[in-house]
């Protein structure tokens, strides 16, 4: 047999099998391909449709998937062309992250929003502080194109130097905390609370001075309990142990022997840790009263004093979440702070917002959402009186007790503390405004409108100097 004729017969025998009708294909049964109707469709009395005779030929799965892939590729191409036509402003890290955010709008032409007393919550269209701080962080600077040949891809993907270092370092062994005795320890509580009021409270007036002094006297007489007042007293003592008087360089006395000596760091920190450990054992029994929320704020301040930003963040989140629960359980009519800004919840609200924003500048973590609650629309003003007169429902039962003596803070020192407290809130708001101006349109805005950026920076500097 000829070889060519053998191959030709094989090619002729490999013909494509006839396609079954649509009914048999759906049933996955063999079709006899009888025309114009197969035997099964004739028995069942249904319409017999073959692909080559159908007016609507069906696509195979392969053709369908190819068509879908081509459609998606066309959509991606159109998106890339839109970004390219936008001048590259949205090609940056920050521009892509906030491309759905609306730009800022001024209330009126020529109106300066920096000098008024609008609250942070009034600017609902602004970018989230976390996004603003991330765009201005050192981690984001590693992604600048100028460092492409210097920085590796792994280093460019670092979100936080602090969190990355915590993952790689081993936990040091923690020595057992020092236990507090009953002897001289109770006698030192009132002294340490007065030291806290004199050195710490002026910079962050989140507690009621009169109530703290009353709590300290009760602990001295009755001993420690497992409630919020005892926890607040222990937190104040811990902060007092790790705090010393700050003396600016320009105020050094001529005779250095007269300068007060700082406390011994080792012994003071050990004692502070003992007070804090005792207070931490009482955090689990706290709820949503102002005293309980103050305890978490004080715990966060203590961690910041000892350079523990992540632990401080956990405490600030607890304070913010508990304050949000407290505000939601109150009537909205009770949300308005009085003229003297003595409303305790309002003071706690601003302290939580301030603490979250300060920590977010170093840690890329989302806030608790307390700011979106829209509680306080009034920017804080200096109170006319030096002490708080607000009373929470939890402390109403204590009104019949004797009033505490006046604290050691004079009117002038109290005023300085309040001005520092309100000024720090205003400065943080100014920083957020400046970040919005720098990053809302991406890096390309700096090159195209240099004069506008310089002018807005000058306005921000004037606001800071005014405080």
What is the gist of this entry?
The protein is an all-alpha fold and 467 residues long. It is built from 19 helices and no strands. It is 52% helix and 0% strand.
How does this model look, in words?
- The protein is mainly alpha-helical and about 475 residues long.
- Among the domains are: about 35 residues, Zn(2)-C6 fungal-type DNA-binding domain (CD2-Gal4); about 30 residues; about 210 residues, no CATH class.
- Helices cover about 50% and strands about 0% of the residues.
- It contains 19 helices and no strands.
- Helix 10 packs across helix 12, helix 12 runs parallel beside helix 14 and helix 15 runs antiparallel to helix 16.
- The longest helix has 29 residues.
- The radius of gyration is 35 Å and the shape is elongated.
- About 15% of the residues have low confidence.
Properties at a glance:
467 residues; mainly alpha; CD2-Gal4; 19 helices; 52% helix; 0% strand; elongated; transcription; Zn2Cys6_DnaBD
How are the SSEs ordered, and which strands pair?
Blueprint (H helix, E strand, L loop, with lengths): L2 H11 L8 H6 L11 H6 L16 H25 L7 H5 L31 H7 L2 H4 L11 H4 L4 H8 L15 H16 L9 H14 L5 H14 L23 H16 L9 H16 L3 H21 L14 H17 L50 H29 L4 H5 L1 H17 L1
Helix pairs in contact: 6-17, 10-11, 10-12, 11-12, 12-13, 12-14, 14-15, 14-16, 15-16, 17-19
Radius of gyration: 35 Å
Name the beta content range.
under 5%
Number of helical segments with 4 or more residues: 19
Largest sheet: none
Structural class: mainly alpha
Query: Total strand count, please?
Result: 0
N-to-C terminal Cα separation, in Å? 107 Å
Integer average pLDDT: 72
How would you spell out the order of helices and strands?
HHHHHHHHHHHHHHHHHHH
Helix percentage range: 40-55%
Spans of at least 5 consecutive residues with low confidence: 87-126, 385-407
Envelope shape = elongated
GO molecular function: DNA binding; DNA-binding transcription factor activity, RNA polymerase II-specific; zinc ion binding
Pfam families: Zn_clus (PF00172)
Keywords: DNA-binding, Nucleus, Transcription, Transcription regulation
InterPro entries: EcdB-like_regulator, Zn2-C6_fun-type_DNA-bd_sf, Zn2Cys6_DnaBD
